[in-house]
Amino acid sequence: MKGSFAGREEAPGGPVVPLLRPVHPLRPWLIGVAFGMALIPAAVRPRMSGNVWPRYMTIESIVERGTQAVDRSPMLRPSGTPDLARYGGRLYSDKPPVLSVLGAAVYAPLYLWGGLRFPDPRSGPRDLVALNLVMIAAFVATSTAWTLAWVRRLLQTTRFPVWVSDLLTLAFGAGSLLLTYGVTFNNHSVAAGLITAAFGLVILEDPALHRVGRRRAWAGCCASMAATIDLPAGGVAFVVLGGWLAARARGLPVAFLLGAVGPALLHAAAQWPISGSLRPAQLDRRALEYPGSYWTSEVGRFRETGPRWRFGLELLIGPQGWLTITPALVFAPIGLALASRRGPLKAAALATSTLVGALLVFYIWGVRVTDFAGLSFGVRHLLPVTPLACVFAAVALDRLRGRWAGLVFATLLAIGAVYAYEGMQDPWTRAERRAERRDEPAMRFLQRFVLYPHTSFTR
Questions:
Q1: Phi then psi for 92, rounded to 5 degrees?
Q2: Mean of pLDDT over the chain
Q3: Rounded to 5°, angle at Cα 127 from 123 and 133
Q4: DSSP states along 70-131
Q5: Region at 440 (left for phi over 0; alpha for psi -120 to 50; beta for the rest)
């Protein structure tokens, strides 16, 4: 049976997408775990920002005061974070609360029985270093390992020799924002693992194993959890996967929707006590624009600085554009176009194109903030879909099979690796600001070749 969107091409009882170079089931996980473990020592030095502090304040407040309100946190004033919302006269983080609630589950035993606590003005940095490392290991490094394990599993659908796919997987990790943000506590790295896993579960679905319902339930769980942690990327991924599975089944994707219930209930339980609704704070302008907030200041108030198509160029090929920082992704549209024409990856290519295209439209024309992505390095909001784009960049290389294509691809991966490493040193400073420093020769050199050397960021 064929669905018009799914484009299934399978032999009776065979896999939806054949594995051209299958490997032992543990091999992808060993590669992912090796990369994830390598991130942990690199994260010993805390990389903090106004984006990180609100989540840590929420974690501390839940465990130590039994509330998500952060206005009594000793970290509030020193952090200087603008990422706050006000409900009922109290201040809360404006981040979706689920990741902080999960972080509180990790922090609670360390606080109650381990003698560790998030720092206040009376304590030194020792506890912060230890707790930050624990949080990164538990969430970011683990999610990055999971991401790369699924990337390696998806590369089984290409014709590369096994060792080449292994190296490509590691290169995608080291040559993208997975490395840059793998050393700081953030939601995008976590969402990347969840979205890549959700797509991988559907793409590599094998009816012959008679576990289709279970896999679709796990895909729904992963996509739903991603939506509670990174609403734009996770929300679009959930809709795209739901539509894809509905087309396959020619009906309601029941298992997928049932899998989504748990994360949705967790979000409801965390968000309702804050706002009395299910709407995250970032979608509630009244909560963000309270007297004295950053968004009511002269700097934070939105002004249209030019046509949105120009901002789109900046988002893609500007000083810290998605393709500037991870240039190997220029192969991704080629891979998506080739795969969507015919073959077993047709449905996956159409779904991934829809996901990436919808996010680009949203971030170019939908977002209305003066300083999108703030002071951070690269377009971190597209990090959750970068692994899937990397997979189809590899598909392009596999289909082109030319020596020159391989040489260009390797060169672009190397450039991305330099950017990713430099970004890892300071993930919370923009690329063009880094290039202005005298002690940043690599950044100064690479930024000379930016295709669209314009930035609308003025803060």
A1: -130, 160
A2: 91
A3: 150
A4: -TT-TTHHHH----EEEETTEEEESS-SHHHHHHHHHHHHHHHTS------TTS-SHHHHHH
A5: beta
Q: Which two tokens stand for residue 440?
A: 């940043």
Separation between Cα atoms, residue 365 and residue 230, nearest integer Å: 18
Closest CA to 173 of 195, 200, 193: 193
Q: What is the C-alpha to C-alpha distance for residues 259 and 84, in angstroms, rounded to an integer?
A: 31
Question: Would the pTM count as exceeding 0.70?
Answer: yes
H and E: helices and strands count for the chain: 22, 2
Segment 280-325, tens digit of pLDDT: 998 898 999 888 888 888 777 777 777 888 889 999 999 999 999 9
- Decide: 216 and 206 in contact? Cβ < 8 Å: no
More confident residue, 210 or 354: 354
Task: Give strand pairing partners of 92.
Answer: 85
Hey, where are the domains in the chain?
26-449
Residues 457, 429: contact at Cβ < 8 Å? no
For residue 78, count other CB atoms closer than 10 A to its CB.
12
User: Is the Cβ–Cβ distance between 159 and 398 less than 8 Å?
Assistant: yes
Residue 101 carries which side chain, given as an amino acid letter?
A: V
What would the mean pLDDT of 348-360 be, rounded to a whole number?
97
Give the side-chain half-sphere CA count within 13 A for 175. 23
SS3 91: strand
Give tens-digit pLDDT for 149-204.
999 999 999 999 999 999 999 999 999 999 999 999 999 999 999 999 999 999 99
Rg (CA), the chain: 22
Tokens describing residue 299: 């700097």
Helix, strand, coil percentages (3-state) for the chain, rounded to 5, are 65, 0, 35
Give the tens place of pLDDT for each residue, 12-47: 334 578 899 999 999 999 999 999 999 999 999 999
**Number of Cβ atoms within 10 Å of the Cβ of 361:** 12
444 Rama sector, left if φ>0, alpha if ψ -120 to 50, beta otherwise? alpha
CA distance 19 to 28: 14
